[in-house]
TrEMBL record:
GO MF annotation: an example: zinc ion binding
Pfam family, one: zf-RING_5
Alphabetically ordered keywords of this record: Metal-binding, Zinc, Zinc-finger
Record organism: Mesorhabditis belari
Protein name: RING-type domain-containing protein
Length: 355
């Protein structure tokens, strides 16, 4: 038994990271406004926080500050509540707890969080100690304005009904004792968005073993290059293909993405590889032509009388200045194109250093 799991883990570990890095960047763990990954700790510019309103929205502290400073009509977050940015923002403790679970790490280019463990530790409701879930409405997380949370069921039990035009429930947060009124007993919130994203990703990657019909993530499945069988689990691989050449399906999938990427990027680059030299050659020919014609025009001034010579001279200078104007504008664009490409090139080197 021990041997099997060592075999399986070794193969999975080998390529799991590639697959996860590709596929498992959680969009919901980046600020919804500036796309910066949230910080795991409080007091940072990218600490997750949320609006204080009936249409709770997650964003980082920096975006909260920026949005708050704007006139309400110019804010990215719009809802019918007039008090969205009225109060001092609290860190979203639920989010920070999730990020600190040890299941996530920032991916190589620091663009987002990827999963580093086989399964993710879902935060629990601090009242009933049940894991939050998106499949069971009672267990859905209810995020409080103070950034703490509890499940829908515990909120229903602990909150007190109040009569107010729009607010119906009053609750003292059991963790920070902050008392706040709420309009409904369940609502959309950033943790729910994360749970939904997680479940979507898991379904997307789930595969069934063609032999034993056990379900497992794609990167725990294999194909056999010797007998041509695709999609079987590690255990069936051990039993039926132990002397065969088997490949991790995650690797096959990554290879597919790689080829698709090649296909997409090649014509993109090729287009400029072809059109730049052509345009350049055309341009140089025109400049030579221009030079010949302009010098010829200047040469004719000698044969003119005073006034027409003066007009002609002015005309020649104007044409020269016009050419300069056109070319200077082009040079500006050419330079910014150059520095733009240089910047992109330096990204390749950065990626090499961090990998
Ligand atoms: Zn932000
Ligand atoms: Zn709002
Ligand atoms: Zn609960
Ligand atoms: Zn609280
Ligand atoms: Zn199997
Ligand atoms: Zn085989």
């Amino acid at each position: 038994m021990a041997k099997k799991s060592v075999y399986r883990d070794a193969i999975i570990d080998l390529h799991k990271h590639d697959v996860l890095a590709f596929k498992f960047v959680f969009k919901s763990l980046n600020c919804a406004l500036c796309s910066t990954p949230y910080s795991k700790t409080a007091n940072e510019v990218n600490t997750p926080t949320q609006t204080w309103c009936v249409d709770i929205q997650a964003m980082c502290m920096k975006c909260h500050e920026e949005q708050r400073a704007r006139a309400p009509a110019l804010r990215a977050h719009q809802c019918k509540d007039p008090y969205c940015f009225e109060y001092t923002p609290c860190p979203s403790y639920c989010f920070m707890e999730l990020l600190s679970s040890g299941c996530f790490t920032l991916n190589q280019n620091l663009m987002g969080y990827v999963q580093t463990t086989q399964s993710i530790t879902i935060p629990e409701c601090p009242i009933c100690n049940e894991e939050y879930s998106i499949e069971n409405s009672q267990r859905e997380p209810f995020i409080l304005y103070c950034g703490h949370g509890m499940c829908n069921e515990c909120f229903a039990k602990m909150s007190k009904p109040i009569t107010h035009t729009s607010l119906k429930y009053n609750l003292e947060c059991p963790q920070c004792k902050r008392r706040t009124a709420y309009a409904q007993e369940s609502w959309e919130n950033p943790l729910k968005i994360f749970l939904r994203e997680l479940s979507e990703k898991q379904t997307e990657l789930k595969r069934t073993c063609g032999d034993c019909e056990k379900e497992a993530p794609l990167f725990e499945m294999f194909q056999c290059n010797d007998c041509g069988k695709v999609m079987f689990c590690a255990l069936c691989g051990m039993r039926k293909h132990h002397s065969h050449k088997i490949v991790d399906l995650g690797v096959v999938e990554v290879k597919k993405w790689m080829n698709a990427t090649y296909e997409a990027i090649t014509p993109q680059i090729k287009a400029y590889d072809v059109c730049f030299p052509e345009l350049q050659a055309d341009l140089i020919e025109k400049i030579h032509n221009f030079q010949a014609k302009a010098l010829e025009k200047v040469g004719k001034i000698e044969g003119l009388s005073y006034d027409p010579a003066k007009d002609e001279l002015r005309d020649c200078l104007a044409i020269g200045a016009k050419l300069e104007g056109i070319c200077e504008k082009y040079l500006g664009d050419l330079r910014s194109c150059n520095t733009g490409i240089e910047k992109l090139l330096s990204r390749f080197d950065e990626a090499k250093e961090t990998s």
